[in-house]
Amino acid sequence: MPAHRRPAVGTRLFARTIHGLEHVAAGELRDQGCTVHTVTPRQLVLTAPAALPTPRTVDDLFHLVLVIPDPGATKPDLVAVTRALASAPLGVAPAPVLSVSASTAGRRGYSRYDVEDAVGAVLAARLGAVYASRRDGGKPPSGAVDWRVTVDASGVHIGPRGARPPLHRRPWKTASVPGTLHPPVAAAMARLAGIRPGDVVVDPCCGAGTLLAEAPDGAFRAGSDRAGVVAARTNAPHLSWFTSDARGLPYPTGSVDHVLTNPPWDRQVTAHGTFAEFVREWRRVLRPGGRLTYLGPHDPPRGWQVVGRHPISLFGRHPVITICVR
Q1: Are the C-beta atoms of residues 211 and 239 closer than 8 Å to each other?
Q2: In terms of pTM, does the model score above 0.90?
Q3: Domain(s) of CATH 3.40.50.150: residues in the chain
Q4: How far apart are CA 216 and CA 258, in angstroms?
Q5: Which one of 126, 129, 155, 186 is most buried, counting C-beta atoms within 10 A?
Q6: Whole-angstrom distance, CA of residue 213 vs CA of residue 128
Q7: Hey, what CATH class is 183-325 in?
């Protein structure tokens, strides 16, 4: 879907998201006026209204041109996919170069590259385009129109993204740090936190500033980090950033509505202090009834009311978004 075009009324789309955040993405899409038809692991099928705002909690969004049942697990079964695609109405303009990105779930006798090349050959023939394969590390040239294919127990879904970059690549995020948070996860955390206009929201482990950049406008947002905040200032210069230890924050007692954070997991980022020490300070700065929303492997802190636990799968890890009330 080109960046300058909005979906027409009744446009069928499919969205990809982080496993564990499907329900959060479905809620956001419904709030935007979409009808969500199916929710399966990492994927939602929906009908979009006119002028659909860009959803923040999905990784990417594609027009849906073909849905067929799961063809099977053997490589010859891919013939059913190419036959269906050969006669399906595509509804897209020809493009000089196209690429295909595929994912499969379950035991299969074929790889994602087999799916990509099979679908790419049909699309290239139908659209009069050159197909740029990703096999052997190939990288599509700039401007190639990208198509997406998913194969899982719910069926095969095929559709184009267009020439725009994936939605999870935020244009504002030009600086990064080790352990930086995936923007759709940050957006989901901000949504789950229940932030309202006028709330004071702080991130004491801000890194590149992703969480506060994805938090809603209308809230006062300030972030800090022991290692420095150069990346955060680069990404979101309109917000307040300063260097500080998460165990000693410069906020008065009971002055903060939300602590929204991704504290160190002791993997990519070393923790200077224990999670219990962090939580003790965060409890101090939160007002009575204030919320702590954090991502990580840490158990909920004792003495807090836990109002939500959302396990996710993130780049081979399985952290939990936890929401607690002081």
Answers
A1: no
A2: yes
A3: 183-325
A4: 12
A5: 186
A6: 42
A7: alpha beta
- Region(s) of the chain under CATH 3.30.2130.30: 11-162
Fold annotation for 11-162: VC0802-like (3.30.2130)
Tokens coding 227: 């290692």
The first and second tokens of residue 18, run together, are 């982080």
Say which residue the tokens 């139908």 belong to: 126
Q: Which residues contact 262 (CB under 8 A, 6 or more apart)?
A: 179, 181, 186, 189, 203, 205, 207, 211, 294, 295, 296
Give the integer Cα–Cα distance in Å for 17 and 193.
Answer: 19
Interatomic CA distance for residues 29 and 54, integer angstroms: 9
Q: Characterize 52-91 residue by residue with b for buried, 16 or more Cβ atoms within 10 angstroms of its Cβ, and e for exposed.
A: beebbbbbbbbbbbbbbeebbeeeeebeebeebbeeeebe
Three-state DSSP class for residue 5: coil
Quick one: 6 exposed, middle or buried, by C-beta within 10 A (0-12, 13-18, 19+)? middle
Comparing C-alpha atoms, which of 257, 272, 265, 271 is closest to residue 325?
A: 257
Closest CA to 168 of 6, 318, 306, 18: 18
- 129-147: per-residue pLDDT in tens? 999 999 998 889 988 999 9
Comparing 269 with 133, which gets the higher pLDDT?
133
